[in-house]
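Worked example

This section walks through a single chain of length 78. The input is the sequence exactly as stored; nothing has been trimmed or padded.
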Amino acid sequence: RTLNRRIRLWFKDGAVLEVRNFNRLRVKKDNSANKVIGVQEIGKYLSKEFDLGTAKEKIYIKTRQYAKRQTTWARGQM
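Given that input, the structure is written out below as tokens.
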């Protein structure tokens, strides 16, 4: 599937390092940048709350749910 491939590529291209560097910026928790899909999940992986597989699965689920909301919204606009 395309979604799985995109998530694998994101991790291959350095998603964990990207989130680690982002977290070093100490952006306020209520900032919308912290709500980007993957930031919280990888953050929990980095803090040892999740293993990497769990983080990837949660990112996959949230991304799929977001895509479904977009499809539903778009259908209502047609």
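What to look for: The chain has a mean pLDDT of 93.
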